[in-house]
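Risk register update: the risk of archive-format incompatibility is retired. Evidence:
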Amino acid sequence: MWFAAVLLAAMWISTIAASLPAILAATALAVTALVLGIRAIIALRRERIGGFLLIVLVVSLGLNLLLLLSSAAQLMFWQEYVEFADCMRRAITNSARNECNSALEEALMSRTWGSFVGQGPSSGLPAAVSSG
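Archived output:
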């Protein structure tokens, strides 16, 4: 039962706010849910209980891993997401929003592929997006 409660709390926190404390809290709760879920699977196997409950638990653990990866990615690329949020706040047209999305994609690709080929991280987000 604690596994489900902690997992739901992590999912809820990750959706309500995009602030650094919220993402850190969601990540910590996701790690806690992962540990609780693994312990629950071990307890079910020890008691020789299987069936639908075990399937639901394994699927929930899979969703938990996706949440954990998402939170970790947001933490790794925190600066890019902050700049993206700032860009989206200033964007008042659809074309400006599309430019923010493109700039985020470019910044993420530059940072991830740049680290593979030996280039340092650089942000590709524009300092200001024109509103026209």
